[in-house]
Specification:
The complex is a heterodimer of chains A (182) and B (338). Chain A is mainly alpha-helical. Chain A has one domain. Chain A is 77% helix and 0% strand. Chain B has 2 domains: 115 residues, no CATH class; 189 residues. Chain B contains 12 helices and 10 strands. In chain B, a hairpin with a 2-residue loop joins strand 2 and strand 3. About 2% of the residues of chain B have low confidence. Classes of the chains: A mainly alpha (182), B alpha+beta (338). The interface between A and B is medium-sized, with 20 and 22 residues.
């Protein structure tokens, strides 16, 4: 059993909104979802559709596993490397094959879901509204951003997307530096 | 195959959904402390009832305080109301009071305090994550803008009000263009603002049981209109959704006012509190509408072609929830109370 549960953000609006707030107030999670949404959008509508299908699902599965077994895994290094890599891919604006994109999305979702699951004690009864909130927020953010990126083809917008990717990568590198120093 | 399996599952989910996420009422507790002397207080405690059951929360005063005599209690539609006199050795101002059980009950308590020798009422919102509050002194009560709690309560009321959100979703789904959407949302907003205001200040009152049944019926009605819209049929509602939005807005405004009535309004800041509560509701409504529109746009941009049965899910959800709540509230109405 884990000795300590990182508590979920409490908005006062109930479990569903606590779950939504959790995503927006956890920088590594937020940066990963942003990065994946930009990356999927760069691959066109097909990438966006794949992201919408796989990311919430894999996140949910990871969450369920994390909650069920309460895995005491920090995984900070791995998760930081992951969102940094996604940022680099966005900055490079690489065309990825469907298989590679699917693997990246599903793997990231599972890993981050697993970490989320550890921080959220499972509900003793009733609907796991916090889980529903996190997964809904992941789905919502993914679809809104990837759709916008996929639909906009102007050069300046594509450059802005790549710049955003480079910022995600830079944030990841800074976090990595701090982690390694600690 | 997928269709054969998923379709019944979705129908069952749509039927169960309203049971799981019941049409809400606002359930914060309410504690009022009015100083009648330097260290004596008139206490009013509204303990919310959730489906007829008392929420397990209670105020905890400092150890040197004691109730004078037995509290007088009466039952209201959704709360038990206690009145008592409290006497303390030291004044409560600047000291901490807490609410037992608040963290596990997952609700909030609105605390209203009138310190000794001031007419100013200070309003504080005590939340589960920090179930205690410091009682303001007279000078603090004169200065602090506690009435802003009503803005948050307005937002909360709409965000947790699945019934109101489903009606809005239905209205958004049946409008055909941007101009009509603007007219519809504006009509709904204006109408519910009117009834919220007149009801909150006591000009018009509507009994809870028929009101709940009418609100539930409005959701069922809009569910059937969404189905009609998807079948390519037409009706008065589909041609003039803003008219129906106006009518239903009047109805739902009474519902908002009921939530506000449970809390009460500070008399000296009545208009401001009412305005803030209303603004909070409108913020919540507009955020929801913008989100639905953004999602619809994103699905189009991603060229997602949903199967017909998936496109029907929102209509089923609205219709099933409306039907369930209509039956539930009508039964309550017939039985003679909610």
């Amino acid at each position: 059993m884990p000795l300590l549960f990182a508590h979920l953000m409490q908005t006062g609006f109930g479990g569903f909104y606590d779950g939504i707030a959790h995503l927006f107030l956890t920088p590594s999670d937020l940066l990963l979802v942003l990065g994946l949404a930009l990356l999927a959008g760069q691959q066109g509508p097909q990438g966006g559709r794949l992201l919408l299908t796989l990311l919430p699902l894999s996140w949910w599965i990871g969450l369920a596993v994390g909650q069920r077994w309460g895995l005491d895994l920090t995984l900070a290094l791995l998760s930081t490397v992951l969102f940094t890599s996604v940022g680099v891919l966005v900055a490079l604006s690489l065309r990825l094959s469907v298989q590679v994109l699917a693997f990246t999305v599903a793997g990231s979702g599972l890993l981050f879901g697993l970490i989320n699951g550890f921080t959220m004690p499972s509900a003793s009864s009733g609907l796991p509204l916090d889980v529903l909130g996190v997964v809904s927020a992941v789905a919502l953010l993914s679809v809104l951003i990837s759709a916008q990126v996929a639909a906009t083809r102007s050069t300046s917008f594509c450059i802005a997307v790549r710049v955003a990717g480079s910022w995600i990568a830079a944030a990841g590198l800074m976090s990595l530096g701090l982690l390694l120093k600690a | 195959m997928v269709r054969r399996v998923l379709l019944p599952l979705l129908m069952v989910a749509a039927l169960l959904m309203p049971r799981l996420v019941s049409a809400h009422d606002l359930f914060p507790g309410f504690l009022e402390l009015q100083a009648t002397g330097a260290s004596t207080y008139q206490v009013l405690w509204k303990l919310p009832l959730l489906q007829g059951q008392r929420l397990p929360i209670a105020p905890r005063f400092p150890d040197d305080c004691a109730l004078q005599g037995a509290p007088v209690s009466r039952q209201e539609a959704t709360a038990l109301v206690y009145k008592a006199k409290l006497s303390c050795r030291e004044p409560l101002e600047g000291r901490v009071i807490s609410i037992d059980g608040l963290a596990s009950a997952g609700t909030e308590v609105l605390l209203r305090v009138r310190p000794w020798q001031t007419e100013a009422l200070q309003t504080l919102l005590i939340q589960p994550e920090q179930p205690e509050a410091v009682i303001p002194t007279a000078s603090e009560a004169d200065q602090q803008p506690g009435v802003w709690s009503y803005l948050r309560l307005g937002i909360e009321h709409i965000l947790l009000g699945v019934d109101h959100l489903l009606l809005l979703l239905g209205l958004v789904l049946i409008v055909r263009d941007g101009w009509m959407l603007l007219k519809t949302v504006t009509a709904f907003t204006l109408a519910n603002s009117i009834t919220l205001s007149v009801s909150a200040v006591g000009i018009v009152q509507m009994p809870a049981a028929p009101l709940n049944a009418a609100i539930a019926l409005s959701i069922l009605f809009i569910g059937t209109e969404v189905v009609r819209f998807m079948r390519g049929q037409t009706s008065f509602t589909l041609r003039h959704p803003w008219v129906v939005a106006c009518g239903f807005g009047l109805l739902h405004g009474f519902g908002y006012a009921r939530g506000l009535a449970e809390l009460g309004l500070p008399h000296h800041e009545l208009l401001l509190a009412l305005l803030l509560f209303n603004v909070g509701i409108e913020i919540g409504q507009d955020v929801f509408v913008v989100l639905v529109l953004a999602l619809e746009r994103a699905f189009r941009q991603l060229q997602i072609r949903w199967p017909v049965w998936v496109r029907r899910v929102p209509a089923w959800t609205i219709g099933c929830a409306g039907a369930y709540w209509t039956i539930e509230t009508t039964v309550s109405l017939i039985k003679g109370g909610v």
